[in-house]
Amino acid sequence: MPDHAIHGIIGYTITPFDDEGGLDLNALDLTIERMIDAGVHAIAPLGSTGEGAYLSEEEWTAVAERSVKTINGRVPVIVSVSDLTTAGVVRRARAAESFGATAVMVLPTSYWKLQEDEIVAHYQAVGKAIGVPVMLYNNHAVSGIDMSVDLILRIVDSVDNVTMVKESTGDIQRMHQLYLRTDGQLPFYNGCNPLALEAFAAGAAGWCTAAANLIAADNIELYEAARTGRLKDARASFFRQLPLLDFILKGGLPKTIKAGLDIAGVPVGAPRLPVKPLDEAGRARLSAILETLN
Amino acid sequence: MPDHAIHGIIGYTITPFDDEGGLDLNALDLTIERMIDAGVHAIAPLGSTGEGAYLSEEEWTAVAERSVKTINGRVPVIVSVSDLTTAGVVRRARAAESFGATAVMVLPTSYWKLQEDEIVAHYQAVGKAIGVPVMLYNNHAVSGIDMSVDLILRIVDSVDNVTMVKESTGDIQRMHQLYLRTDGQLPFYNGCNPLALEAFAAGAAGWCTAAANLIAADNIELYEAARTGRLKDARASFFRQLPLLDFILKGGLPKTIKAGLDIAGVPVGAPRLPVKPLDEAGRARLSAILETLN
Amino acid sequence: MPDHAIHGIIGYTITPFDDEGGLDLNALDLTIERMIDAGVHAIAPLGSTGEGAYLSEEEWTAVAERSVKTINGRVPVIVSVSDLTTAGVVRRARAAESFGATAVMVLPTSYWKLQEDEIVAHYQAVGKAIGVPVMLYNNHAVSGIDMSVDLILRIVDSVDNVTMVKESTGDIQRMHQLYLRTDGQLPFYNGCNPLALEAFAAGAAGWCTAAANLIAADNIELYEAARTGRLKDARASFFRQLPLLDFILKGGLPKTIKAGLDIAGVPVGAPRLPVKPLDEAGRARLSAILETLN
Amino acid sequence: MPDHAIHGIIGYTITPFDDEGGLDLNALDLTIERMIDAGVHAIAPLGSTGEGAYLSEEEWTAVAERSVKTINGRVPVIVSVSDLTTAGVVRRARAAESFGATAVMVLPTSYWKLQEDEIVAHYQAVGKAIGVPVMLYNNHAVSGIDMSVDLILRIVDSVDNVTMVKESTGDIQRMHQLYLRTDGQLPFYNGCNPLALEAFAAGAAGWCTAAANLIAADNIELYEAARTGRLKDARASFFRQLPLLDFILKGGLPKTIKAGLDIAGVPVGAPRLPVKPLDEAGRARLSAILETLN
């Protein structure tokens, strides 16, 4: 795949709220600095983890602009610009580009199920509206839409700047097909945390993970072992991280990552209701897991 | 079940747009008058059919206010007030009550999967905020959340004004359990069009349907046959309607109902992108089906 | 549908075993007499309930022959002749016909998933081998094969003596399609106990049920109410039976029906291992449910 | 895991039939010799691939005895002894042990769904009946029973000679849990062909595969690359094999492997009806895939 492609550990930011439920952009800066200091290869604001779907348009814009400014070119920035309407995605994609995003990420979310032609047109609209690359994001668990490998490749073929694919279904066979059918030339990224070892084994260019807020060094260690072909080291690193990866997947990312940051001394507030903060038993379990990793 | 409960055919409005994609409230009035003239027993604006999820807050408010005003007490009005955040639902529920809604309908929609406690708290928040009844709405196909019968009854038990349940999973066994476990005292409503016959057979208080925009007289005929225990008439009426009910379910309600209204001479514009208007082949098929019904 | 079609309550026999695990054909006779005395409209030996899949070839033959002989033409007999191999089904179908069966029932069971052509050929082989009608049986929960309505109608069209369809998926929409696409001319039978009310509402010709071993009078009452179009009576009868119907579905038919017969004073032995007899808590619950029905 | 555990490539035999549909034990010998010559680490007769479920008791016994005799201790032999009844499994397990099998494999197949206690008792019965190790086999796609990791570990804990687990669900997370919860001490084997790379990455002791009838050298190459930690070589080997692995999975193993052996000059007859031989288009596709591998 092309040398300039984004690769490695792509850390997903949470969106911190203050006690009144408003944005806490200073805390956002802190979480960004933590990940850059730890060595992540790219940062992705406003994704699923970033509660992008729960923000008002003004809040979304403020977080996008601040994130790009704080990162300030030190690593690539992939801004999630998903919205229920095509018009909304186009508006957000243009804003992200204007702030200086390296790329944007688009998950087709929809209340009403979409036909394939509707999804292709959705990507065409956003692709045409901007000049930076688009990362196609497939995650039916949060979006209700499951794009087949056929559909993904159709979109990649028909929209010039859709050049990367983030696969979060957790089905390794999808990655196999993406690899086989493009002779390994299409960069794909894993968004299912407990699949990190196998995704790298199957040739994933990167791992999109909110875990980098808490254990970026471990995430990077796994990536480096896999990249340099040291399978046993990769396996050992993976199984050490797996209890945490399972925990954040099952518990929900905003809830568990926010609790983990609080445990780590970086208060970032609660998720937005109806999502509640992690309860006491969950926090105790998370603390215990984190202690095994440091 | 209580005499005063809403019953019969509850017609769901679409939300008309003009050529620029803005609201067309005069067309909304027309669709409301059509259903009232045809004899529906209640009207429900801003549900799934009404593209409530695709509207801005200002648009949502305008449609809610206008709908209640146009209906003007001639039939009960159930306004859908669903939103991704609890704060948003509370805001909309208060607005609907202030406009004069008979009841509100709440579908827990969420990007991140919710735990049962979070769903209960969501209903408690809205229940406490208003004085009118709440219709709980279960429809995982559009919301991504499937509430079990256990959870539904827990909510009904713990929130005083949650007094009605709309079941749209299409699983008749859920209705059986709702009936059995409340001795038939909890009014439940069917939201799965091709289940209309069986839902009435199983004791449903009503049928929530967007089909009433197109074939309200048939919908009412089925209800009356079932209500008066004439099974053979109900069956004959149902099978006559079934091709249309299947068609609108598979095609998506806003898309097919808007096309059907256009065919009937009531132009209401296109759905919001990424949902496209019904294509030509679909329109031809829909016209053919509608002709068999008139 | 044709006047001569089998209709009403089709009682499924269990296969009684003695203390050593061998066949107890005298007990089989008792269970058959009970159902005939109660007024069932047909009897079906060796189905899922009859543990046909767990018998040796000699045992299967003995039960088939004895059942037909005991029934002795008093009601139609539908013998289940399913087997993993096509050769086995043909052999059993010929045996059943030679004993005097009114019809045979065939469920395509397979270890390896079958393609549609293979299933069609399977039915063609058995259809050609015998002169009596074949009831096609669809039940993926036990067979691992789910036949679509398209496939079922293709088989009905291509095999002359496949003239009846037993649908046990519990999906009422399948029955709707069978009805719509044959103008109500293809007799279909319901094999999902908790769907009995709705299947009759949708026009099912009969109800295939092992419950007739325990509550045949109630089963018949529901059928008669539905047949004569008395919807409210049918609903009341159904909801009274529903706790039992749910219990036997969830518990497994051989296990629960054998326990129920034992409670009723007709000892029929245990199911074959690995299926165990109903445990004590289950027996207590079953006794309590049965008491509400008498 | 223990040094003596079976590891590497475990080749699954097909069961050859002659033109009359009877056993062809000479052809069976040929297929066994091919795999031993190619260097497989163990051989497994009468599994899913071996159509064990479609054989009469006499046929099953003949194949079991002949397989062990032909292999003659050159590699370990794991005989599949699954049967619908517990009595049948015990009988087959004892026979296999008496013939000299290294181990037996047990898949709980059942017509009626089994409760967990029933499955545990099933394994206890067979474990107690024999002195050789038992490989637990989980494959709901063919058996209709899906054993959770909890249940598998409960069986491993409660039956001394259940010492190996074959996981064929294709869900890599099951393997992760088996590894994590036994500190990597329980040997697990992959039975899902297109998961071979990732299963080895996750620490699988072996790969149970019918592909070894056709491309044993490639299978072994992948195993050796993974065993010695050469991730890039393993990935390259895997993607070269993947089209074949996908093809045999989707086409069904007896059908496709028998066709592949025929293409390779080893006629082994057709599968038993209702499973048909691979059709012409399938044979052409299989030939084309095999040519890329030699």
Automatic annotation (TrEMBL), chains A, B, C, D:
Protein name (database record): Dihydrodipicolinate synthase family protein
Family annotation (InterPro entries): Aldolase_TIM, DapA-like
A Pfam family it matches: DHDPS
GO MF annotation terms: 4-hydroxy-tetrahydrodipicolinate synthase activity
Stated family: Belongs to the DapA family.
Keyword Chloroplast appears in the UniProt entry: no
Signal peptide: none
Source organism: Nitrobacter winogradskyi (Nitrobacter agilis)
List of catalytic residues: Y137 (proton donor/acceptor), K166 (schiff-base intermediate with substrate)
Keywords assigned by UniProt, alphabetized: Lyase
Top-level taxon of the source organism: Bacteria
Gene Ontology CC annotations of this record: cytosol
Residues that, per the record, bind pyruvate: T49
Keyword Cytoplasm: no
